[in-house]
Amino acid sequence: MPEKVYPMTAEGKQKLEAELKNLKLVKRPEVIKRIKVARSFGDLSENSEYDSAKDEQSTVESRIIQIEQKLKYAQVIDADSVDPEEVSIGKTVTYQEVGTDDAETYTIVGSDESDPLNGKISNDSPIAQALLGKKKGDKVTIHTPGGSFDVEISRVAVEDE
What we know:
Blueprint lengths: L5 E3 L1 H30 L8 H25 L1 E3 L14 E7 L5 E7 L10 E3 L3 H6 L7 E6 L2 E12 L3
Parallel strand pairs: 1-2, 4-5
Antiparallel strand pairs: 3-4, 3-7, 6-7
C-alpha cells in the first residue's frame, strides 16, 4: 500500500526543512544537555528536572520523525504549472458568497502551512476541498460543520501575484 502523500508548497517544504534542521542541531543537543545535568542531581525516581527533560526529548524526537515522514513523501505543488484559472494548492482564491457583497480571500496551502488568521487555509479544510479544481467564475457549494453556502469564485492567482 502506498504511503500517504503530503501536498505542500515549496515555501512550506523549506519551512519544514528549516524546522527539522533546528530540531536536530539545536533542540536535540539542548535537551540531551538538560538530561545530563538533571542526571547529576542524583535519584532519578524523584527528579522532576530529569522527567521534564525526558518528556521534552520525547516531544522533539516525535516531531523529528513526523517531519522526516512528511518530507519523505512530500509532493511539492507548482502552482505555475496548473491552469492559471484553476484553484490549486499554492494559489490565492477570492470568492463571494452568493447574495452578499462580502468577498473572502484565502491562499490554499498544505496542512502544515495552514494559518487561517493570516488567510492561509489547509488543503484538507472543507472550504479548500470544495474549491480545489474549480475555476474563476464557477459557482460552488461549500459544506462546513456550521452549514452549507454557495459562493462564486471571482479571482484565482498564484500566491505572490
